[in-house]
Amino acid sequence: MINTLYRTVGNFLSPGGAGASLSILIYHRVLPEVDELFPTVATATSFDTQLDTLKKVFNVLPLGEAVARLKSSSLPPRAACITFDDGYEDNVRIALPILQHHGLQATFFIATAYLNGGHMFNDRVIHAVRHSKDKHIDLSQLGLGEYDIGTLEEKRTVIDAILKRVKYLSLGHRENVAEELVSLITDKPLPNDLMMTTEQLKALSEAGMEIGGHTARHPILAKLDEASAIREIREGKDYLEGIVGKPITLFAYPNGKPEADYLAKQVDIPRRLGFEAAVSTRWGVATRHSDLFQLPRFTPYSENPNRFAPMLLQNLRRKDTLANKLSPGS
Ligand SMILES: [Zn+2]
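Above: the input record for the complex with zinc ion. Below: its predicted structure, written as C-alpha cells.
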C-alpha cells in the first residue's frame, strides 16, 4: 500500500518525458552478511529488499538506455538505474544472482588494474586496521600519527582518518603507504579474491549487465596532468573492450566529486575518448538539462529498510547544480 503512495509522489516529482528525472543508484560492495565494522554496506538480504522496493516504486532501466532516453525526452516516470563501482568480486557472486532474480540490469564500472587478485589502497587500509595485531598503532613513520584501535568505533574513526589523508597522495605514494601500513600492523595476508577476475567480468557482461570504464588505477584525476588522465581513462577502456568485446560507452569518475576528484576541464576527456556519458558521485537526479558527462548519482544508505524509498523520493527534489542554466524552458 505504502508503495502506491510512493509511486503517486514519484509521479509528481519524477514524471516521464520532457520533465523526467533519472535516479542513478550507486553501490560498491554487496556482502554475504552484515560487516560489523561497516554496518550500512549492502548485504545479500538488504540488497534483495532494496531491489524489491526499487522495482515496485521506480521503473528500472539500464543506464545506456536511460541516457539515450534522457536525450530524447522519452524516459518513463520514476526512472532509475543501478550502478556499481570498482569491480568487487561480490558483485558477481552475490549481487548478480539477486539482480537476475529480480530481472534487473545494472552497470558495473571497473577499475581494471585491480582485477585478478589486486587491491585498491582503501581496501588495504581497511584490511590492516580490521586485522591489527595491537589495540594501539603507531604510524608516525608513515607520517600518519598514532591511534587507539581497541573498539569498532575507534577502528572506523581511524580508517576514515587515514583514508582522508592517504586518498589525495600521488598514485604511487598512495599505494606504497597503504602497502607499508599492512605490513606494519597485521600479519594476516590480504585476500586475493576481493576483486573480480577477467573471467567473472566476462560472465557479468555475458549475463546482460553493462560494463563501464572507471580508469585503470582509480587515480584522483584532479591530481593528474592531462596526458596522465587521458592515459588512465583510455587504458581502462581499452582493457575492458578487449575482455567483453563490446564498445565501452559509459564512464564513472574515480571518487567522483567535482573539483575535489575531477576538474571541470577534464569532463571533456571521456567524451573525446568515445564515451557517451559519465557519472559522478554528486548527489541528485539527472534531467534533460544535466551535463551528460557529469550525471549525479545517489546512495540511499540506511540501516532501516523502510527509509530506502523515502530517501530516493527526497533525492528527487535535489537540484542539479551543474545543469545547463543557459536554456531555461527549452
Ligand atoms: Zn571507485
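Notes for the reader.
The chain is about 40% helix and 10% strand.
The CA atoms of residues 61 and 161 lie 37 Å apart.
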